[in-house]
Specification:
Length: 577
């Protein structure tokens, strides 16, 4: 029998027990009606003297029966009462009921045996069999006693008929008790099976509860491990993103040599990685100690102008720090004036520092509050370190480039740089069909300054002349020291006539100035030769040679003069601009 069948059996037996209880109650009511009828019968018939107390005893027994049933219905299980007490109660009950039969055989008084039969449902047939036997013996004895007293004429046949009827009644009741005893046994076995089943189910429940708690514990551990794994994955993803970003910037630093282009690339990377609304990189001017915006994603010119105007004021007021990183997720225009006109709610700023010196700042902005975290600032600090190194290296590179291309004494470009620029400018002029002029200069009687006043004064002459000429040239012009006291001026987009005019202007202004070291004061003069492409030269070699020949001609013609290549005199018709 499986679990479902056992549960169904227990439910059926429980329903049968309720049914038997109901029938027992109906039987008790029937007994009460019979006793009332017996009492009424006694009021109209003659009764032996020893049976006068029978109605009283019937009422007492009925009260005992009712009290017993009340206790059972209140929850006092019959199984917990003494079987002997229950048997004694039923014996007295049956005896007194059958004593009241008088001359009537009491054919219908077999109903009083119903409590005995129903007791088989709780005690079993074998336990109620002695009770049935004792009740039968009493019944037969009382029937014989009453029959012999009332039938004094010796109606033996009627007496035996009553005895047979009583025996038949008890036979039927005994058969019913046997059937109900079998039902009680089945019910008992079912109860035991149900109890065992409940016990096993309880054990299973305990085991299942332990398994559930263990599974819950394992589930909690798995959730914790899963959370730790997700956190590790998040950190790993963040680290990989940071590593990739730093790698990209490192590659850019090694491949992009133009500082403005590099900063623009870094700014684009910051916008892409951090998802900010705007990013700005500003560098510090060492002379003015002010921040100048070099790269920014603020495209509106008015907003960018407001940013440039007020960012230095906020730094001076202390609202914006350039000495350490800062984070503010609740930005107001009153606190940060550079955000005026823009709906900025969060900012993060880190300084660009190299060798203990502040080079600039990286400032990111977002239009929503609580947009940035310390992780964003940390990544920005990593990027700023890379950018700071790149800026510092670029400045060192520019300084080295200047040292490699600038003449250390005069501040003019050296001959190597001049040769490189000449080649580039000549190719550009040839491709674009433009003009390119060249002026060669030589200080007249320079050896006399060294011999008369010493080499230090000679160096002063060279530096003074170089500074004067550089001050009077255009930004596009290139001034270089060609060798010794010779200088050269390369002038893109300039005709030979224009170059000759400029050379004459320089010659005249130089002849009017004095070179002084507070002890010695003297004037100097220069001779100049002018040539140009495409008028006098087809390549850079011819350009240099024609200008040098013109310079040699100017020196041979008396010095302190300007000589154009291919001309016998100083002819100038086009203005210099």
């Amino acid at each position: 029998m499986d679990t479902d069948d056992k549960l169904m059996s227990g439910q059926v037996t429980g329903n049968l027990e309720d049914l038997f209880r109901f029938v027992s109650r109906i039987t008790c009511i029937a007994l009460l009606v019979l006793m009332a009828g017996d009492i009424l019968f006694r009021m109209g018939e003659g009764i032996p003297a020893f049976l006068h107390i029978s109605p009283v005893i019937q009422v007492v027994c009925w009260g005992i029966h009712f009290g017993f049933s009340f206790l059972v219905n209140r929850g006092l299980d019959e199984k917990h009462l003494s079987i002997r007490l229950r048997g004694l109660y039923l014996e007295v009950f049956v005896l007194l009921l059958f004593v009241s039969s008088l001359r009537h055989p009491g054919y219908f008084y077999f109903i009083v045996l119903l409590p005995i039969t129903f007791s088989t449902l709780s005690a079993g047939f074998l336990r109620t069999l002695p009770l049935m036997t004792w009740a039968l013996a009493l019944q037969l004895f009382m029937q014989w006693l009453l029959g012999s007293h009332l039938d004094s004429n010796g109606s033996i046949a009627a007496l035996w008929m009553n005895l047979l009827i009583v025996a038949a009644q008890y036979g039927i009741i005994g058969f019913a008790c046997q059937v109900w005893g079998a039902a009680q046994e089945k019910f008992r076995l079912s109860e035991e099976e149900n109890a065992n089943l409940v016990a096993r189910l309880g054990d299973k429940y305990v085991q299942l509860e332990e398994v559930r708690r263990e599974m819950q514990s394992q589930y909690d551990q798995l959730r914790k491990a899963n959370f730790q794994t997700e956190e590790s994955n998040r950190k790993l993803t963040t680290s990989l993103a940071e590593f990739y970003t730093v790698q990209q910037i490192s590659q850019a630093i090694s491949s992009i040599f133009d500082m403005n282009e590099l900063l623009k690339f870094v700014n684009d990377v910051i916008i892409g990685v951090m998802g900010v609304s705007s990013s700005t990189i500003a560098l510090r001017n060492a002379q003015t100690d002010r921040m100048k915006v070099l790269v920014s994603s603020i495209f509106d010119k008015r907003e960018l102008a407001v940013f440039s105007d007020f960012v230095n004021q906020d730094i001076q007021r202390g609202g914006l720090s350039v000495s350490h990183s800062m984070l503010d997720n609740d930005v107001t225009a009153e606190e940060y004036r550079f955000v005026q006109g823009r709906s900025v709610r969060s900012i993060a700023c880190v300084p660009l520092v190299a060798k203990g010196s502040t080079l600039g700042i990286i400032l990111i902005e977002q239009v929503i509050p609580e947009a940035f975290t310390s992780e964003n600032v940390r990544l920005l600090e990593i990027l700023s370190q890379q950018v700071s190194i790149a800026i510092d290296n670029a400045r060192l590179y520019n300084q080295m480039q200047e040292m490699a291309t600038i003449d250390g004494l005069t501040g003019a470009y050296n001959r190597i740089h001049f040769q490189n620029c000449l080649q580039e400018e000549f190719d550009r002029a040839r491709e674009q069909g433009g003009d390119l002029a060249l002026i060669m200069c030589d200080i007249d009687h320079f050896k006399r300054f060294n011999d008369t006043h010493g080499h230090q004064f000679g160096d002063l002459v060279l530096k003074t002349l170089s500074a004067h000429i550089r001050e009077h040239l255009r930004k596009s012009d290139l001034f270089a020291r060609y060798g010794g006291e010779e200088f050269v001026i390369l002038m893109p987009h300039t005709t030979m006539r224009q170059a000759a005019d400029k050379a004459e202007e320089l010659r005249r202004s130089i002849s009017e100035m004095l070179v002084s070291d507070r002890v010695i004061s003297t004037s100097i003069t220069i001779s100049m030769g002018v040539s140009a492409f495409p008028e006098m030269a087809k390549n850079e070699i011819q350009l240099i040679k024609s200008a040098d020949d013109a310079l040699y001609s100017a020196k041979n013609s008396g010095r302190n003069r300007v000589q154009s290549a291919g001309f016998s005199g100083d002819e100038r018709t086009e203005p210099y601009s």
